[in-house]
Amino acid sequence: MQIITDIKQMQEIGNNWSNSQTIGFVPTMGYFHKGHLSLVAEANKNCDITVVSIFVNPSQFGPNEDFSSYPRDLQRDLELLNQYKVDYVFNPTPDQMYPAGYKTWINVEELSSILCGASRPGHFRGVATVITKLINIIKPSLMFMGEKDFQQIVVLQTMLKDLNFHTQIHPCPIIREADGLAMSSRNVYLNSEQRQQALCLSLAIKQAQEQYKQGIDDPQILKKNASDLIIRAGGRIDYIKFVDSVSLQEVKQAKDDTRILLAVFIGKTRLIDNAALGSY
Amino acid sequence: MQIITDIKQMQEIGNNWSNSQTIGFVPTMGYFHKGHLSLVAEANKNCDITVVSIFVNPSQFGPNEDFSSYPRDLQRDLELLNQYKVDYVFNPTPDQMYPAGYKTWINVEELSSILCGASRPGHFRGVATVITKLINIIKPSLMFMGEKDFQQIVVLQTMLKDLNFHTQIHPCPIIREADGLAMSSRNVYLNSEQRQQALCLSLAIKQAQEQYKQGIDDPQILKKNASDLIIRAGGRIDYIKFVDSVSLQEVKQAKDDTRILLAVFIGKTRLIDNAALGSY
């Protein structure tokens, strides 16, 4: 496992991949949990070379968000990666990625301004831009991303197709704690009471899936019930939406592949979760 | 010379370049003049493979601009290219490049909203986006572009650096008619009287260079004199600026590498020209 901190050095390696090799890339902001590691395992399974980036990307955080306090532990991350076949870890500095005078931004219109994009203006612009930079530096064939950030996957798939990148996204399922909480680096922000409250996201999803299975396909009813459950648990709802899994537009009638997406504040911590209604 | 109209087919060819080959790319909107052909010759001189794209890019034209009337003559263009070693001509349709639901745009901030960007909102967004698409499809090492579109080169160099593309721009000098008019596909719009008037752009540049050589380094004076010359000739000034050749910011004192940039309407035709003050 080679740790690369210099963009030019990583780019040089990327320039010399052979056309016959499949290069797997797992972009991360570090502070690994089992969700991240499942992506690395999936890259190992599908690719000849595995590259993991660890970069807390400042441009995807809003001015009042948690960029500076976002949890970081590079040493622990590297030890965890040692259990896998990771060929390269790319770990650049923000100053290298965004030097003085940086000016270029990528926007995926419509998809970036709804859902999490409505609550976090500029977030997906930062994500789209950093992923373009990382793809140009690393030149992967496949990029492994978790479905917890479902909107992120849709935004980036649209960008890759629109801009004719040859890199494809390989989406991987959400990894959950035993009690159902979706794994997230931000879960460390929760105290023990909040940790219990946080179950309301996965419980609201389960309830919606069960009610859909019982024949309720009106998103308004499903949403009201999810909302009641979350409020009772002490969560503050940012959004609950039932959307088409490709366009992310709200649906009028729920179907198996309709996605329930939700963002909920537990205390000051904003958590997200999602699932296909028919996947229960 | 192979003519490729399908994006996937061109991309397939691009995926299989060998790392040891230098791939030269000349992006054009067709309707070739000697300026375009000088770029092809330069690509031939510097590269193992030469790819020329012919694509009138709708996204860089404003709603009231000349997209539909922009001159096109593919047959003539291909005949002209036959005099050079062109390996591939890439000639996609607008529908292929921007299919229904297209959403992704690249903006190079600051540099895109001044000069031609102030007169043509969205122009450089369209240029930056189409060039990113073409680079991802063709994967060139070097891109040959004429200095007539000086701001375009600066915008794209900034984009390529910011987004960590490995493609580099190889700028090529402006090619002029015998009487000094910078070659442009839009020169066909000029009637014979306007063709004479159009000389005011290169004459204003020459005058500024001469006056600078004589010791006048105050951009205000140089600008006033250029402006007088153009108005006397019947031109309508869009802008005349004396700028730093990297930042494109206006300078307070002219130097050898200060660039005079101008955009002038001759009748309804908007022409541009530029030069370094010290290059006379």
CATH level 4 superfamily of the largest domain in chain A: HUPs
Please, what is the oligomeric state?
homodimer
- Net shape of chain A: globular
Averaging pLDDT over every residue of chain A, what do you get?
Answer: 97
Beta-strand level of the residues of chain A, as a percent range?
15-25%
Helix proportion of residues of chain A, in percent? 25-40%
Terminal CA distance of chain A reads: 38 Å
What topology, given as strand order, has the largest sheet of chain A? 1-4-3-2-6-7
Structure description:
The structure is a homodimer of 280-residue chains. By secondary structure, chain A is α/β, with parallel strands linked by helices. Chain A has two domains: 2-172, HUPs (Rossmann fold, 3-Layer(aba) Sandwich); 185-275, Pantoate-beta-alanine ligase, C-terminal domain (Pantoate--beta-alanine Ligase, Chain: A,domain 2). Chain A contains ten helices and ten strands. The first copy, chain A, has helices at 7-15, 34-46, 74-81, 94-97, 116-119, 123-138, 150-162, 192-197, 199-213, 219-233, and strands at 2-4, 23-28, 49-54, 88-90, 104-108, 142-146, 168-172, 236-243, 259-266, 269-276. In chain A, the strands form two sheets. In chain A, strands 1-4-3-2-6-7 form a six-stranded parallel beta sheet, with helices on both faces. A three-stranded antiparallel beta sheet of chain A has the order 8-9-10. In chain A, α9 (199-213) packs antiparallel against α10. The relative contact order of chain A is 0.13. The interface between A and B is medium-sized, with 28 and 28 residues. β5 of chain A pairs antiparallel with β5 (104-108) of chain B.
